[in-house]
Amino acid sequence: MTSPATAPVAVPDTTPDPVTPSAPGDRRRWLALAVVMTAAFMDLVDVTIVNIAIPSIERDLSATFGAIQWITAGYALAFAAGLITGGRLGDIYGRKRLFLLGITGFTLASALCGFAVNPEMLVASRLLQGAMAALMVPQVLAIIHVTFPAHERGKVFGMFGAIVGLGAVSGPLLGALLTQWNLFGLEWRPIFLINLPVGIAGVILGRRFITESKAPKALRLDVVGVVLVTGALLMLIYPLTRGRELGWPLWGHLCMAGSVLVFAAFVAYEKVKTRKDGSPLVELSLFKVKSFAAGIAVQLTFGVSLGIFFLVWTLYMQIGLGWSPLRAGLTGLPFSLAVSTAAGLSVQKLVPRFGRKVLQTGALTMAAGVLLYIWEAGRYGADITTWQMVPPLVVMGLGMGLIVAPLTDAVLSDVPREHSGSASGLINTVQQMGNALGLGLVSVVFFGVVDDHRATTPTGVASAFEAGFQNALWWVVAVLAVIFLLMFALPKRKSPEPRVLAA
Prior knowledge:
transmembrane helix; Growth Hormone, Chain: A; transport
């Protein structure tokens, strides 16, 4: 299970495009819309569907907990590393071409995941799947933009939002059902193999109905920037996920310390790249806007909290409490519904009236739900029921819904229009990076506590996982407190017009 916050941000591009939108009477554009929305739905469901099957994967492949983390974190890391470059490749070589390449690779990677014979093959396939998603997903909004005239885009983006919400709600339940049914004795494998017919249909229909388009002035690729930021993330996240199993060796600490230097080298290179040809991977001038800089920090820390919570939550229910995938999936439904309800309410009614106070209320509400969950886990122990979990999950979902929907708009409110595309791409990238980092931290905040508890208190798996779950949730509370404070730097109200950055 994961959150709708992982979905791509729908920010209309203001750059003129040489491709004329399809004529209003052209029905092909609606078929093209169906194809790209189906691909976006497939990607979102694939993210949300995996966590619920993690315990089954762990048993079937005899995967270590470190491998389990990489099955989820590897996808997020590859997706984050390639997201901005994927969008730029579409601008240069054609959005249709990159979309078809991405969906073909995503489908192939799904097949490799479904037929994986060991944890190493599954992790490698998930990395490939994330990289292909990074080619596919950025083209979706760009294709919508050039396919539909301006007066229709509002309705189309509304439909896109509905698809995102549907994917967030249906993914965990679909994963639970496919795992529980054990179709053809394949156990967890159908959660990946279900992408094959969808992906093949998307390739065939996409070739026929999507119109090719390119940006009139596409920026150059920043390959060095991609290598530096990916290397820095790997140097940080790999030791986090493997360190516990290897006894926290010295090289791991040196790698994590070295990642800071590589990040610094990345920033220095981006400054040089900006002066040289004006096409850096990250537009550093955006960070001169206080609200944007604070918003990026919020996105990063929020991604960390989600990365920690959703994986730990699944392991707690299925391994710690021994629940079936279906029971765990159904338990998550009230949370997803609460997120969707609060998200719609916050954007339409609350934020226009109360501004950033809505987001801060969301952080406090979500923290209150987490605290209630901590109390219930300790109070009821292994005897906790689904119905007892509903109140904290609903409170958490309402809080999260107040944050996820209006956050992007708040972050972009003071960003100049000409930088809206790169800013929105950076928002998506940073949240995925935070998610990968949170998944890496699970080794420290959850598995480390589980190991220590089982070594010192021989009371069984349930007690150890309960202790690990509670400890991880305390970390989530701490992160939400940081998010609440960072939100003071967001604008109180949305600015009427984005300001112009000084050169």
